[in-house]
Amino acid sequence: MTIQDIRDYLGRYFDAVELVGDYDGPITGPAKIETARPGQVSFIANEKYLKYLDQTNASLVIVNASLALDGFKTETAFLKVRDPYSAFVFLLQKFAGPRTVAAKGISPTAVIGEGVSIGDGASVGEHAVIGDRCSIGSNSVIGSNTVLMHDVTVGDDSVLCPNVVCYDGTKIGRRAMIHSGAVIGADGFGFAPQRDGSYVKIPQMGIVEIGDDVEIGANTTIDRATMGSTVIGNGVKIDNLVQVAHNCRIGDHTVIAGQAGISGSVTVGSHCMIGGQAGFLGHLELADRIHVAARAVITKSFPERGVAVRGYPAQPMREQLRYEAMLRGIGAMKEKIELLEGEMQQLKNQG
Amino acid sequence: MTIQDIRDYLGRYFDAVELVGDYDGPITGPAKIETARPGQVSFIANEKYLKYLDQTNASLVIVNASLALDGFKTETAFLKVRDPYSAFVFLLQKFAGPRTVAAKGISPTAVIGEGVSIGDGASVGEHAVIGDRCSIGSNSVIGSNTVLMHDVTVGDDSVLCPNVVCYDGTKIGRRAMIHSGAVIGADGFGFAPQRDGSYVKIPQMGIVEIGDDVEIGANTTIDRATMGSTVIGNGVKIDNLVQVAHNCRIGDHTVIAGQAGISGSVTVGSHCMIGGQAGFLGHLELADRIHVAARAVITKSFPERGVAVRGYPAQPMREQLRYEAMLRGIGAMKEKIELLEGEMQQLKNQG
Amino acid sequence: MTIQDIRDYLGRYFDAVELVGDYDGPITGPAKIETARPGQVSFIANEKYLKYLDQTNASLVIVNASLALDGFKTETAFLKVRDPYSAFVFLLQKFAGPRTVAAKGISPTAVIGEGVSIGDGASVGEHAVIGDRCSIGSNSVIGSNTVLMHDVTVGDDSVLCPNVVCYDGTKIGRRAMIHSGAVIGADGFGFAPQRDGSYVKIPQMGIVEIGDDVEIGANTTIDRATMGSTVIGNGVKIDNLVQVAHNCRIGDHTVIAGQAGISGSVTVGSHCMIGGQAGFLGHLELADRIHVAARAVITKSFPERGVAVRGYPAQPMREQLRYEAMLRGIGAMKEKIELLEGEMQQLKNQG
Q1: What is the mean pLDDT of each run of 10 residues along chain C (351 residues)?
Q2: Nearest CA among B260, B233, B116 for reference residue B173
């Protein structure tokens, strides 16, 4: 790829892509600004990295349209765009090419159940097990050793990496990316306590429904509903080792970071952001566009959209930060009390 | 199934099952009260849901024996029992039917080691790997791609879902349900620090022993003991993504919610409840019937049975709630101090 | 094994191994001091366990060189060494013998891609899937149902337990032990927010590089870098269910306990200890030999080596403990304020 190829490619996304300087050789791949080698392309989107501008060995750097580039060394060429970060993401997509999770077609070692429908261009990897009546959409990929139990539906252009398990009845939309070790549709954790102190299992008869354009991280678990569906909306992105319990509903384009845990029957709105290791008590509702800080614990519903919350119990950011600052000031409070006690003693002595 | 069938079935569990109203058609399945359709059965066990009594489309609703039903619409029939929640759980079990985790018999793609014993009616799924000298009880099911290393014992009527791993020597009792991705018997995390700052692995020579009627959630890990056994008692229920470290002993009928972590050599009594994301330091003991709140951290032993604890460090509920309330009142304390300072200043000025 | 065999064996590690008493029979295996049976060897390294000295049924007990043994029963023999704990660990290694994760050679049910190199004495278990151009070192073991995607390198003498997944390009050093369910090299969690509120995936083009002598726990996830490598140094030990996000660098001989979560682009120094359920915000740096307490949250870099930190936000141990003690004293502060208010009222009344 030449600089001109890259300029043309970025021109699809940006009105203006200005070239400063030049470099004749091929651009071989992307790299971080601090480790780029000659021939590579990098980017600077954050002022912190401007110091690398005259140190980098990159042959091409994507920078902000407003950046003044006078005096920088001539071996490096620059492309100036409105949003260099997004431009670089688009470039990464161009360089990345498709990952081969499984070879095209149905591996001879895969086991395919009865009444299975597999779309054109789909791949089923080695030792994958596809249960009866499953449906796999066109161009979708089922990784090696992945198990779909019966009646699982996977839409077009989705990728299930190796060693994923989808329990019976799971529905997955289009363009999903499900990473290894994820378990979709295991039983919700429901047991009815008995008088003798033992528990009777509450049958978990529902399913999991996953929308389009969803990414689910490695070893994440999403439990089936007791009745009906646990629902993961369109465009939802879930990181690794996240627990989504039975009967939850996660709204469209919500993002959930690693090791967060969503208890049963929680409804999260759309465009929310849930931080890492956050937790939820059960049966709560979050409105749209709520930000939950890392490690927060949601103990009540937040019906108002757009709120940022933090702490345990989580409360709106401003109150929580004020509260935390007061806690941090407890040493000063203690000193003031001691001072007051001394003064009081003095007054009493005088009195 | 007719209403009379359901009434007869519940009559096995309850002395009195009173029918109010009638519905002639078949009952096709269970549903939540707010989403039930004609032909479905639902229940109300909680006053919050009474508002649905005259809105629901369910053809049959299980309600509390004491509920007055005058004036409700005649299209819906009611069965009155002492405990409608448990009644509905029993009904769910009736409707659920058995899940097909693997077809009866030994799949031709499974690999069975030497000296393996497999009971009558047992199933071994596709590509499962059963190590030498394993024993699988009658009617038990080993899911596809599940691996039993050598010398693993599984009792009768147990189900291991796909992609479970049991390390060598693991013993699992009867009627177990082990969900996908669970890893039973991996090495405990034990390393002896050396003078040069490196670590020498402490061989983990013990096993994991799991009692009868245990359920273990997806992607949960239970480590083998260094010597002897990590023990999971009868009737224990463990949710997803839980860590039970080496040498732990979990008492009968204890329940552990998602993402909780039990450190090494912890002994938990019977009938305890451990909340989600709770944590434990190592080498501690909990008496029977202790409740650990979600996100609590147990930093010392609790030898007295029946205590509820909360917080980090966890302390008995009442003290912890009082402590938390005092913390929440820090703003008021600060104001009082400022008021006192003002008054003191005034007194001093007067003095 | 006789006592003399054990004495000779420990003589390789310790200058002085003194025998007190004697026992003629064979030593059949190791056991905990409180449960040892005749014929077994145990140890006492901690004063708390000295009470078992005259109760144990062990035939041999490893004790500290300085321990006075007059008056203990003659059926038990003792070996006195400088470090009985390490001595016992070495003994455990002698008794443990090698675990059979997979039989020697390549299982006929394994699927081996093109251009794969497999060293002498290596094992590939049943249904394992080895992608194109992978390299497996001498005497290494790939467990059943484990998947190596393309271009994965595993050094000599490493063990990957069953159901591990290594994504394409993963590099693993020598003498690694990777437990079941671990997922190495899944995509980092990176998405660029778009103006319409949806997200575009940032291609994760890097890899994971794991050094020598690393142990990785069950169901732990280590994500590939966006560009370049996520690096796990030599001798690192990681427990179960840990999340190491993209672009992290973990220094040599650092230990990470269960359920800890390291956010993206965090650099942890060498010889650090990270407690269970600890968390990190992204893009931070820890110097060498830092101890992070269990459940702590690291919110800023700690550039000074050797610091122990605790709390959320984590701060140096001493400050944090002082802060926590002050919080615990809030009840006393409240009482003092009330007392002052009473005295103030009295003064005002007098005034």
Answers
A1: 93 92 90 92 90 90 90 83 92 85 94 98 98 98 98 98 98 98 97 91 96 98 96 98 98 98 98 98 97 98 98 97 96 94 89 65
A2: B233
B266 interface with C at CB cutoff 8 Å: no
| Ramachandran assignment for B6, one of left (phi > 0), alpha (psi -120 to 50 degrees), beta (any other) | alpha
Q: Which residue has the tokens 């190491």?
A: C244
**Pairing state between β A199-201 and A191-193:** antiparallel
**Which helix (H) or strand (E) is A335 found in, with range?**
helix A330-350
Structure tokens given for B291:
């409740």
Q: What is the DSSP letter of B289?
A: T
Which chain C positions have a beta carbon within 8 Å of A45's beta carbon? none
3-state SS of chain C is CCHHHHHHHHHCCCCCCEEECCCCCCCCEECCCCCCCCCEEEECCCHHHHHHCCCCCCCEEEEECCCCCCCCCCCCEEEEECCHHHHHHHHHHHHHCCCCCCCCEECCCCEECCCCEECCCCEECCCCEECCCCEECCCCEECCCCEECCCCEECCCCEECCCCEECCCCEECCCCEECCCCEEEECCCCEEECCCCCEEECCCCCEEEECCCCEECCCCEEECCCCCEEEECCCCEECCCCEECCCCEECCCCEECCCCEECCCCEECCCCEECCCCEECCCCEECCCCEECCCCEECCCECCCCCEEECCCCEEHHHHHHHHHHHHCHHHHHHHHHHHHHHHHHHHHHC
- Three-state DSSP at A133 gives coil
Helices (H) and strands (E) in chain A, counts: 4, 38
C273 at the B interface (CB within 8 A)? no
- Averaged pLDDT, A46-55: 86
Look up residue B332 and give its two tokens: 């008021």
Whether A183 sits inside 8 A of B85 (CB atoms) is no
Q: Note the pLDDT of residue C351.
A: 65
Contact status of B345 with chain A (Cβ, < 8 Å): no
Q: What CA–CA distances, in Å, run from A251 to A316, C23, C82, C122, C199?
A: 20, 70, 61, 48, 14
CA distances from B342 to A348, B331, B335, B339, C55 (A): 17, 17, 11, 5, 68
Task: Return the bridge partners of C117, or none.
Answer: C135
Nearest CB to A31 within list C227, C337, C344: C227
Cβ neighbours of C56 (radius 10 Å): 26
DSSP code of residue A342: H
Supply the pLDDT for residue A350. Answer: 81
User: Cα(A308)–Cα(B177) distance, rounded to whole angstroms?
Assistant: 40
Interface of C with A in 39-68 (CB under 8 A): none
Mean pLDDT, range A118-139, rounded to an integer: 98
What span, in angstroms and rounded, lies between the C-alpha atoms of B4 and A35?
75
Does C323 contact chain B (CB < 8 Å)?
no
The set of chains that have 3 or more CB pairs under 8 A with B is A, C
CA distance B155 to B310: 37
Give dist(CA C210, CA C230) in Å, integer. Answer: 8
pLDDT, position A336:
95
CB atoms within 10 A of CB C9: 16
pLDDT for B38 beyond 90 = yes
Q: Which two tokens stand for residue A260?
A: 């967060």
- pLDDT, tens digit, 9 for 90 and up, residues B57-106: 999 999 999 998 877 767 899 999 999 999 999 999 888 877 889 989 99
Cα distances from A196 to residues A192, B210, B212, in angstroms, run 11, 21, 16
- Whether B291 has a pLDDT exceeding 70, the answer reads yes
Q: Are strands A315-316 and A308-310 parallel, antiparallel or unpaired?
A: antiparallel
Domains of chain A are: 3-96 (3.40.1390.10), 105-320 (2.160.10.10)
